[in-house]
User: Which sequence fits this backbone?
């Protein structure tokens, strides 16, 4: 089960659409599981890794994956050629991921971009690596073409995610 948890207010209609997209991509249940408060002392821009370590958990089952959603800015990520904006972060192979809607003025229009980022981060939670196919949600998110893509996996990443999910259930 994928549990979408908000760190600040979001429209229920947009959350329902996001959950539908995640269900279609992963083939496992997805639901909005409420709201949790940002840990005391957390300031903007959020340090995504630290936030995921400190935020309250909401899992009901051991194999649940939690996607935290915020509208606040995340700290830029340091890369070899410089820094890049961060729109999401995942604890690779573990249970939590974080995605921000910061910079998206109209979530109705930008939902595809948020869903693509959510697929990408949840893919990392299920131990998927970056993909060379620019149409795939596992394509590196710091590339200029990433936000324009669809919220879909390529055939290879889809099969790999299904394999990881089946293994988790056994």
Assistant:
């Amino acid at each position: 089960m994928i549990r979408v948890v908000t760190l600040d207010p979001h429209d229920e209609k947009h959350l329902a659409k996001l959950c539908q997209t995640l269900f279609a991509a992963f083939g496992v249940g997805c639901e909005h599981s409420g709201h949790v408060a940002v840990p005391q002392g957390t300031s903007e821009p959020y340090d995504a890794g630290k936030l995921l370590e400190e935020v309250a958990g909401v899992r009901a089952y051991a194999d649940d994956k939690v996607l935290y959603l915020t509208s606040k800015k995340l700290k830029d990520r340091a890369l070899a050629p410089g820094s890049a904006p961060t729109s999401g972060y995942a604890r690779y192979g573990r249970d939590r991921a974080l995605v921000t809607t910061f910079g998206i003025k109209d979530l109705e229009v930008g939902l595809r971009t948020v869903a693509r980022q959510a697929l990408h981060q949840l893919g990392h939670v299920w131990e998927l690596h970056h993909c060379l196919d620019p149409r795939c949600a596992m394509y590196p998110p710091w590339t200029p073409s990433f936000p324009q893509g669809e919220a879909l996996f390529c055939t290879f990443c889809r099969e790999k995610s299904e394999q990881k999910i089946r293994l988790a259930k056994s």
